Amino acid sequence: MHYYDFYASPRGQMLLVADGEGLCGVYFDGQKYLPQVAPDWRRDARHATLRQAQRELAEYLGGERRRFETALAPQGTAFQLSVWKEISGVGFGQTITYAQLARRAGCAGSARAAGAATGRNPIGIIVPCHRIVGSNGSLTGYAGGLDRKRTLLALEAGIPELLAAV
Predict the structure, then answer these.
(1) 94-141, pLDDT tens digit by residue?
(2) Given the residues 24, 129, 133, 152, the one annotated as active site
(3) 23-28: strand order across its sheet
(4) CA–CA gap between residue 96 and residue 68 (Å, rounded)
(5) Catalytic (active site) residue 24
(6) pTM for the complete prediction?
(7) Can you give the pLDDT at residue 160?
(8) Which of 37, 30, 140, 20 has the alpha carbon at shortest distance from 72?
């Protein structure tokens, strides 16, 4: 059974999805790969995992949280799960390249595959795929949009003037 609710974040409406094991989706409205709410999903604003995720996201976006504690239950291929696990290890305010991510996931030379898996990350922000950048440091690819990626990196860098510009 999947449960869902919406969160009106300062960066736009978000769809949060959980199952019996944890949070399995955090999506910005309009982002690439945004799932449709299935008929058998149940909206539940009081679901403990969804409430915790909303609280932690609000704290993060308010500059008060650096680590998330919500239980996660992403669904994907073995390769995707390994990439998402490595993304989770990239610290607050840090970035790595897609090539570094591929090496960390045990697939050196597979930066494009790591990028594709990153793009399919179903738990944006909490599994911080916004911290993955191009080989020259450029902001490439983000399912939630490059403006949001830039904003999240500015938030973590503590650069309020960049936040105001986005």
Answers:
(1) 999 999 999 999 988 889 999 999 999 999 999 999 999 988 888 887
(2) 129
(3) 23-28, 12-18, 3-9, 42-43
(4) 19
(5) no
(6) 0.91
(7) 60
(8) 20
